[in-house]
Amino acid sequence: MPRLRSNIIAVYIVRPAGPDPADGIELLMLQRPEGHRFAGAWQTVGGHIEEKQGETAWQAAIRETNEETCLEVERWFRIDRPESFYNPENDTIYFVPAFAALVARDAEPVLSEEHQAWKWQTPNEAAHAVDWAAMRDSILLVGEAFSDPEQPGLGVSEFDPEDLRRP
Fold first, then answer.
1. pLDDT at residue number 167
2. What pLDDT sits at residue 50?
3. Distances in Å between the alpha carbon of 125 and those of 27, 57, 60, 129, 143?
4. CA dist list (Å): 54 to 49, 51, 81
5. Does this model's pTM top 0.90?
6. Ranges assigned E (strand) in the chain
7. For residue 165, what pLDDT band results from cuts at 50, 70 and 90?
8. For residue 66, what are the contacts with CB-CB under 8 A and spacing of at least 6?
């Protein structure tokens, strides 16, 4: 029987595509470098939850976003449904908490060594650039939810990390 795990997160970084909300959004896509297991693949921000340090999924999302892009996030959202996939190498089904991070229209990332390139893409372009169905589905959900970046809709729920840090 496969194991169930939830020790990784995904973050979809979005920015307004133009000055008018009708211009829609762009998503940040990151390319894995040579020597990485997924060399050349275009992905979003992702990483492991530091379980031994008691890190939560939302804390891992913030940390990974900072480590991989150095972007200042204006607003945080959780994607209402987790991603899931099966890895036959370890007979494990993964449930991946996913987040959306809204940044300024002129935001530009500073990459860590985890990625070799970046680009901003429309949701449709980004959805067609990835190799995983769960990631594609989340990109399309985020694209629809942020069709008006000022008033994100169905599929995402805003949260304030500062509220979650309070006891």
1. 65
2. 97
3. 9, 27, 27, 6, 11
4. 9, 5, 23
5. yes
6. 3-5, 8-16, 25-31, 42-43, 45-48, 75-79, 83-87, 92-96, 98-102, 117-121, 156-159
7. confident
8. none
